[in-house]
Amino acid sequence: MVMENLTDGEIKTHLVRGGFWVFLVRVTEKGLGFVKLIILANLLVPRDFGLLGIALLAVSTLEIFTRTGFEDALIQQRRDIKPYLDTAWTFLVGRGLVLYLAVFLLAPLIAGFFQSPASVLIIQVLGLSVIVKSLTNIRVLGFLKDLDFRRHFWYITFGSVVEFLVTVTLAVVLRNVWALVIGSIAAHLCRLAASYFLCRVRPRMAFSVQKARELFRYGKWVTGSSVLSFLITQGDDIVVGKLLGTLSLGFYQMAYRISNLPATEITQVLSRVSFPLYSRLQSDPRRLRDSYLRLLKVTVFLSFPVALFFLSSAGLFTSVFLGEKWHSIIPVIRILSLWGLIRSVGATTGAVFKATGRPDLLTKIHLAKLSLLILLIFPLVWQWGLLGAALAVTLNGLIINPLAAWLTLRQLQIEPRRYVRILVLPALAALGMTGGILLLTTLLSHLPALLLMTVVILAAAVLYAAGYQLFRKVFGDPVTAINFREFRSTLNRGKGS
Predict the structure, then answer these.
(1) What is the pLDDT of residue 22?
(2) Which of 67, 247, 300, 400 shows the smallest number of beta carbons within 10 Å?
(3) pLDDT in tens, 16-74
């Protein structure tokens, strides 16, 4: 598939077709994850989530700091990547084995840092996932590079279904953190098996220093930006776990998952499509620019209402789905919902930098974010606890993300006012929806909580759709509008091809 030779209509078809399959991936994966989270919130206690959070932080930190960036380098390359696959896979397998040894040996020190001796064995067992992931058939990268999101859907979904069934079943039986640990490892094992079932060609042990050096030349910037991104997104967890303890970490992570899951998962859908697509369009600035604006338009159209819905209905949602033991996180959910929106819109910039061969810009932006987060989070957490951590990450995004947006517009040669106009219409519609939700919850507060939640969800959907169409007619500017008929017909062509 040579993307540069396609017409604009064909590019739209590939874009929407890819978005359709990736959307199915995320809806299935995160839909199951969301239901699982609600079930586990009622079966387990906050401390269990805190213990898992410490183990995930330990494993993820070591993974990120040793990341090669080879996967992104392979996707970004315009030439044939087959000669590079065996070298990349061999290196990743070796890295996985060394990494697990480090996880196993460092587990007591990490547990001591968080003053949580109970997490030692959890870290060591969860670390096995590092080896499992390293053995995955590297040819699954071809699903993303070739925009073959249908097979990517089956690869991801298989593990998600198994994780849901194993985790929930064990949570009912064990009622402790081991349900979460074993479920996570089961998911990775299933995806390992699926990678070899879906890709008949097997990788082999072979290593070329020259090819590894070529991949690392691009990948080093991805590694740098990944490390910084990890410290930005997980730094608040580290500070909360260290200063406030395991129980507070469990509360904070639940608030973060609830408030950020809907908005950021929308971006995950689009970013998985956008990076390989932008990489193919990097030599055609006009089409790259148009594709970015289309994806930005869809991102803000979906992210604004979801984020503001959680901000305005956090108390009702917590009462209905989580229970009384989680009520203390309601104000934290509200603040982090704003962070989810900021993060969702801001995340559209990263794929542009990587696809156009400027991952260094992404690294520099992340460095600025991390520096500001360090300045904000310690005084705010000491002053206001969990609420301070939520304020720190939200303020950080409000200050730095506009800079990332400006650099993206400059990279793609887009007028800032065109970008702002895309944000205005969904923002106004979502604000109107929020006012309606607050009015409804006040007027109908006498209803049973579950019934009120149902009414609020339905009303939010109607209010946002009506508000969007109303403001679309008032402004009369097609650049800010989603063309639903065109989107639907393109999706139908995409599914049929």
Answers:
(1) 62
(2) 247
(3) 555 566 666 666 776 787 888 889 989 999 999 999 999 999 998 888 777 766 776 67
Rounded to the nearest 10 degrees, the angle between the axes of helix 449-475 and helix 285-312 is 140
Q: To the nearest 10°, the Cα dihedral for 123, 126, 132, 138? A: -80
Give CA–CA dist 211/490, Å, rounded: 39
Mean pLDDT of 401-407: 92
pTM: 0.74
